[in-house]
Amino acid sequence: MELVLADIEVVYGKRRRNHAVRGVSLRVRRGETLAVVGESGSGKTTIAKVAAGLQPATSGTVSWRAGDDDGAAGPQRVHMVFQHPVQSLDPSWRIRRSVHEPLRHLGVAGDEADRRVHRLIAEVGLDPEILDRYPRDVSGGQAQRVAVARALVADPQIVILDEPTASLDQTVRGRILALLGDLQRRTGVGYLMITHDISSVRRLATRIAVMYRGLIVESGPAPAVLAAPRHPYTQALISAVPVADPRVAWDGVVAAPRTSCPVPGPCHQHGPGLHEVGPDHVAGCTKADDPQKAATT
Ligand SMILES: Nc1ncnc2c1ncn2[C@@H]1O[C@H](COP(=O)(O)OP(=O)(O)OP(=O)(O)O)[C@@H](O)[C@H]1O
Questions:
Q1: What domains lie within the chain, and their CATH numbers?
Q2: N or C: which end of the chain has fewer CB within 10 A?
Q3: Directed axis angle between helix 140-152 and helix 95-106, to 10°?
């Protein structure tokens, strides 16, 4: 499965004054992460919405190309994780109903639906007890894990992540990124990830596209772009110099690059699929199924 955006233009407003996206083309394949970065107002969220079918393009096309291993491919197998996790859940629904909803659309019900919902809730590291709560009764980090569970419960081919960690503190951010990476390795899901966060890019991106004033001004494989960024925004983002984006440099402090946890399987400290990042954690991180090492931590 491949999501292909070709020559997308989006002009907002009755008088069509705000040309938010100008001829953007990109593709996202299963098993990879395309990170779309760029300063505030450069058109990233607009692109995400166009890709998800939530915003019509003024011109250009969004298409789906099925691969050899695809079953019923199509936009119904795309899900989106928004930047405000609590707000993205219906406040009048218990968590259970929100996570079941994508399955209902697929016609999956009964025991099979319950089984899948419980499996995903466990995979995102939550206690099934949370299913009976309302969004107002869960933390931001828990709500974002619920949003990830909901996005993945129906086995989507592609998930669109719009600033999936923006509203989370550093610790929870690391867990969500580790979870997304782990789920991708196990299920082959592809991510179109919109972000300002360099640690998200380092952790997940296979390729990077840099937007500036509605255009893609730089793109390529993540290692190449990270090693030799050409555009000033990319250079600023990667060198962790404060950039003209209030959410990145609100207090003039930009997080230092963090390293990935090297443990490949379940982590002793954080359970299945939840790998904290950062040098502080890496030192004491052991595999959950290694009791000797685990006992020393
Ligand atoms: N519904 C809308 N109506 C009119 N203009 C809009 C609308 N949505 C976005 N815009 C404008 O389109 C441009 C691109 O916005 P968009 O939200 O896509 O940028 P962004 O890169 O995601 O920004 P941010 O990082 O701040 O979320 C901005 O100038 C924004 O003000």
A1: 28-56+72-77+159-174+189-296 (3.40.50), 83-155 (no CATH)
A2: C
A3: 10
Give the separation between CA 204 and CA 19, rounded to whole angstroms: 30
Ligand 1 center–CA 61 separation, angstroms: 20
Q: How far is CA 108 from the centre of its chain?
A: 25
Length of the chain: 297
Each residue's pLDDT tens digit, 85-144: 777 889 999 999 999 999 998 899 999 999 999 999 988 889 999 999 999 999 888 998
- Report the separation in Å between the CA atom of 19 and the middle of ligand 1, taken as the mean of its atom positions: 10
The protein residue with its alpha carbon nearest to ligand 1, atom 30, reads 41
DSSP state letters, 19-54: EEEEEEEEEEETT-EEEEEESTTSSHHHHHHHHHTS
**C-alpha 252 – ligand 1 centre gap (Å):** 23
pTM for this structure? 0.76
User: What residue's CA is closest to ligand 1, atom 7?
Assistant: 12
Please name the residue that has the structure tokens 């996005």.
Answer: 151
